[in-house]
Structures are given as structure tokens and as C-alpha cells.
């Protein structure tokens, strides 16, 4: 008995042709995800060799054409260019008549809401801001990571359902962000994700300098537990010498960093001050221990060791 073949997703009704302007790490992954939902990628633009490789890996057989031609071919266009390039791109596409009435224009910038698409709106386009709260590698693994990923969604109220539906089709979870809150929303994500990479990279370097042969293996369980605790408990998860008020230990850290990694001192002091403030505000750092600690963080004298001040590690 012959098993009936499954219909090609491209043959489903009410599906959209999809174009990508800017074949960086984000655009091809989102287009590939939309393809899994039955939409049909038809064109992409990309200049660099890396962009071409990403498009070939994630969107095979999709032609690379100039941005205006992408808009000419697609009903849904993903504008996935760097934040600073987005306003000029939108204005240029609108001024040259590339934007068509009824065309869905989706940008993925975290910084901007829907208003950056106003030039296209005046040309009759439908503006959506869909920002995936995820880091991208430019490889097929990104499509898998979109499952359950939150998207910051901003759009005119009449397009809210359409915006949220596209996010769900990509496997994501829509989170509505007001237009005027987009910069704050994006700053929060950058603070948590982008700076985390810098901190981890610095920690790996310091462990290698200290002679640790497998710093990634050492840090993995520690950072995984710290992240899980922080997400569950917030400031109550703070541990370590700053939260304990171990001023002598912190002074030793600063001295060693000045000796071996002076480029890391400013970041260590800034994060230690922020940690001390939060630990004080939440009753974790005892006020009587805070004075010496804050003195060290301000560049004061090295305090004596306090042998009685134990606590959680590290």
C-alpha cells in the first residue's frame, strides 16, 4: 500500500513570499524558520563573502539580488541590518519607490520600534518590529534555538495579531514592548547577554594565566548554577567576597589583576561596586563590613584580613 506523500509547504494557501535584506546572522535564520512554517523565501541580499555563505547554508537555491529587487519579489521583507544602518535603509527604499502598498516590512532591531519604518508606512507598507532575544551564530543551529525564544514585538495596534502570529510561526514567544520602551528593553538585553560574553572571556583568560588547563570545564558548572540561581532568585543568589564583605580578598583580587591583567581592573571594580550596592540594598552585605570594602573599591588602603568572615563560595 502506498503512503500518501505529504503536501509541499510551498503549496499551502495564504502563505507569503519572503525576502531578506541583509544576510547577516539573523535574517537567513528567521527566513529559514518561516520556511518551515510554510512560507517561501524567494530572494536575499548580501554583499560580503560571509553573507553569501550564510545564505547558501540556510537558504539554498534562494538568489542573492540587490535590496530593491528583494522588495520587488517578496510580500514579507525582513530588514536585518545593523541598528545604525536601519533608518537610512528604510528611507532609501521608500524614496526610490521600492516599497509597495500592503507589503509587510519587518525589522529585527532591538533598539527601534515601529516608528523607524514610518517612511515605508507612508508608502503603504505594514510595519512590524520583531526582535528575537537570542544570540546568533549564522549556522543552522540558530533555527533550532528559536523554539521558545522570546521576541520583543512592537507594531501598530491593528497589526498586533499579525506580528504575534509571525513570531509564533517561527517557534517564538511574543512579548509586547511599547515604542518608547524599546531602547531600555534593548539595553537590558545587552547588559545581560553581550556583557556576559565579555566577562566570561576575561575569566577564561585569567584562569589560563593562573595555570588552569581546562578553564571552560571549570567555569561551565559554576556559571550554569549561577545563572540558574540568578534567574530563580534574583539578588538573593549573590555570593562571593563582595556580598560577604571580604574586603581583604577583594583587595588581593585587585592587586593581582593590576599585575597580570590591568585591562580587567576597571570592569572588576565597576561590577564589584554594583554588586556591593545591590547586596547592601537587599541586606546581604552587613553595613559594618561595607566601609572597608567600599574603601578598597574606591582605591583606598588594603584592609586587614578578617578570618571570621566565612560564607558561601566562590
Structure description:
The protein is an alpha/beta fold and 314 residues long. Helix content is 48%, strand content 11%. Helix 5 (118-122) links the parallel strand 4 and strand 5. Helix 12 runs antiparallel to helix 13. It is elongated and about 65 Å long. The model is unreliable at 1-13 and 306-311 (pLDDT under 50).
Please supply descriptive tags for the structure shown above:
single chain; 314 residues; alpha/beta; 13 helices; 48% helix
Explain briefly what this protein structure is.
With 314 residues, the chain is α/β, with parallel strands linked by helices. The protein has 13 helices and seven strands. The protein has a seven-stranded mixed β-sheet.
Principal-axis shape equals elongated
Uncertain residue ranges: 1-13, 306-311
Determine the N-to-C terminus distance: 64 Å
The overall average pLDDT, rounded, is: 91
Roughly how many Å is the radius of gyration?
25 Å
Number of helices: 13
**DSSP, total strands:** 7
